[in-house]
Every structure is written in C-alpha cells, then in structure tokens.
C-alpha cells in the first residue's frame, strides 16, 4: 500500500464530519418542535461522541504504523495493540447507542398500553443483554491484556477467544439491525396512506439495510485480518447508522410537511393495529379535537405537559367527500402525543384511518 492507507484515513474524517450536520439538524428540529431533547437524542449524541473517540484511536494507531504492519517496531506494535480494547468498545457502544435510540423513537410512536409497547420493551431488554455480552467479551476475551503483544508463544491470546468474539459481534449486530428495521416497516405497511407516501416513510427506515451491508463487509475484512480496511468500514457503518437514525426526526426536510397553517399538527395519531372506526363529534371533542362546521376547520386543543413529547412522520388534514360532507383524512400519519392522563392519550390516538363526520 503505497500511501500506507492515507486515503482511508481521509475517509475516516469524511465519515465523522458528515455525521455532525445531521446530528445538529436533528437536535435543532427536536428542540424547536418539543422545547427539549428526549432520551433518544442524547443517545445519538453519545453515538457521535463514540465515533469521534474511535476516530482519535484509529488516527493514533495509524501514526504508530497501522498502515504497514511489516515495518512496525515492537514498541509501536504494543501501542497499537493497547488500542484494540478501547477502540472496539467505542465502536460497539456507538452502534448500540443508535439501536437504542431507534427503539425508543419507535416506542414513542406506539399507542400507550398496546401490544407494540410490550414488543419494544422486549426488544430493548434484548438489546441491553447483547450489548453487555459483547462488552464483557471484549474486556476479558484476552486477559491479562499484555498477552496481546507478547512475543512468547506460550503467553499469547487464545485464537479461539478471538473467533468467538468475532462471531458474537457479527451475529448480534446484524440480527439486531434486521429486527430494528423489520418492526417499523411492518407497521408502516398497515398504514392507510397513499403508496407513494408509504414508500417514502418506509424508505427512511430501510436505510438501515445499508448498515447491515456495511456490517457484512466489515466482517469479511475482519476475517481476513485486513485491519486498515476493517477500521475504514467500521467508520462507514457507524456514520450511516447515525445518519439513518437522524432522518426520521427530519421528516419535513425529506418528505415535506403540512402547510395547513399554525394548526397544521392537528389531531395526533400513533402507530397501532386498531382498525378503521367512525367517531361522532362528541367523541372527537372529548379526545381533544374540536370541529368547526361553519368554517370547515379544525382546532387542536391538546395540552402538553413539560414532560410530553411530539414526534411525527406524517400529518392529518380535512377533505370534502363527493357527498359534500367533511372528512378528516389521514394522508401520512405517524404522530404521538404524551399527556399525564393515560386514558386521554389513548382516546386521542387513532391511526391509519379516514374518519367521516
């Protein structure tokens, strides 16, 4: 490798720098709409910080001669091997922070008390278990750590331990990505919306497939002991994961937002498996929305507590049917509203429907 991997080092910085504006826009969007940041936002920030830390470690390893291991001195080799554990922990922590952030985001889109909440709680628990397994395996697969750079054949790491860590990381990483992608896409497929809009929303989630592809490529180069290429693909994988996690919060910049004026948020809808229901005006009023027949408009009277949140991918609006009667049409609808009163929240949430007054 003539340039000792300089081109790959440049790509590390490109990946890291590319993430920053997406994270900044996500935080700006969330703050302006909600007035605060949620737990998933802090997890995305954590993922970005881990990515930056991993960049620093990989740069240090390259300075010690990672680009051409055949010329590395014993002292520099020791320095490179000392960075394996912290670098691996930062890599895994960044990816798992993104996974947790996505699950918390999807959970906010589910109707409180529904089966989806249970599913996401189970997924969060499983994600925590897989992270702890990988974390402790990284720490203790080769202990004491000086075995990593020992020249004594009888005092070196067990190759089987490295293989176990390799397969555990690959399996848990790809399997969890597939689950996290499949859950929201399955729910989006049941939404009552135009095919173009449905594909647009599903496409945002489907970007996670690029993360899986990156994971597979990384596994290939890691298996061949191509350390520089493994580091490069790791940076690409993590950067794509963070950017993909930021896109749902930037919905209005991707698939456009409603232009219905100050009350464009209107009624709040959530992801659920409830079927189409017809509601009378009295029930609508009880759930937080007031319909004005004279003006043909709808005023939202929902109240938010300081700990509430509002996440949306899609909007609801008014339309007039062929019979001249007003209808509330859900064009693109995945929104959530959290209030202190759980019963009020559940009644105010109706997803995937077209309601006729």
UniProtKB/TrEMBL annotation:
Coiled coil: none annotated. GO terms for cellular component: membrane. InterPro entries: Rhodopsin_dom_fungi, SAT4-like. It is a multi-pass membrane protein. It comes from the Eukaryota. The chain crosses the membrane at residues 6-25, 37-59, 79-106, 118-140, 164-187, 199-221, 227-250. Residues 25-254 form the Rhodopsin domain. Residues 339-357 have a biased composition (Basic and acidic residues). The keyword Transmembrane helix applies. Residues 276-314, 334-357 are annotated as: Disordered. It is found in: Membrane. PANTHER family: INTEGRAL MEMBRANE PROTEIN, PTH11-LIKE INTEGRAL MEMBRANE PROTEIN (AFU_ORTHOLOGUE AFUA_5G11245). Belongs to the SAT4 family. This is Rhodopsin domain-containing protein.
């Amino acid at each position: 490798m003539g340039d000792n991997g300089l081109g790959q080092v440049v790509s590390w910085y490109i990946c890291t720098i590319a993430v920053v504006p997406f994270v900044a826009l996500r935080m700006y969007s969330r703050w302006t709409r909600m007035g605060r940041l949620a737990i998933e936002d802090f997890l995305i920030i954590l993922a970005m910080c881990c990515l930056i830390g991993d960049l620093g470690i990989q740069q240090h390893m390259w300075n010690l001669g990672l680009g051409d291991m055949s010329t590395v001195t014993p002292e520099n080799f020791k320095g490179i091997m000392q960075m394996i554990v912290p670098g691996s922990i930062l890599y895994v922590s960044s990816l798992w922070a993104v996974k947790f952030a996505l699950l918390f985001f999807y959970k906010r889109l589910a109707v409180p008390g529904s089966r989806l909440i249970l599913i996401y709680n189970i997924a969060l628990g499983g994600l925590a278990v897989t992270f702890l397994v990988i974390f402790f395996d990284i720490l203790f697969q080769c202990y004491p750590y000086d075995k990593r750079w020992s020249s004594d054949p009888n005092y070196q790491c067990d190759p089987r331990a490295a293989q176990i860590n390799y397969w555990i990381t690959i399996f848990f990483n790809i399997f969890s990505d597939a689950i996290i992608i499949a859950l929201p896409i399955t729910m989006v497929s049941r939404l009552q919306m135009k095919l173009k809009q449905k594909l647009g929303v599903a496409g945002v989630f489907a970007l996670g497939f690029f993360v899986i592809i990156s994971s597979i490529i990384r596994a290939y180069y890691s298996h061949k002991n191509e350390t520089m290429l493994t580091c490069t693909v790791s940076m690409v994988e993590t950067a794509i994961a963070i950017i993909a996690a930021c896109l749902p919060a930037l919905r209005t910049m991707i698939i456009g937002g409603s232009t219905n004026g100050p009350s464009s948020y209107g009624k709040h809808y959530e992801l659920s498996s409830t079927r189409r229901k017809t509601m009378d005006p009295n029930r609508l009023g009880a759930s937080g929305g007031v319909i004005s027949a004279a003006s043909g408009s709808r005023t939202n009277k929902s109240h938010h507590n300081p700990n509430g949140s509002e996440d949306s991918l899609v909007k609801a609006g008014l339309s007039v049917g062929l019979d001249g009667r007003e209808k509330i049409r859900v064009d693109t609808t995945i929104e959530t509203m959290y209030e202190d009163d759980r019963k009020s929240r559940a009644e105010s949430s109706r997803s995937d429907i077209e309601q006729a007054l």
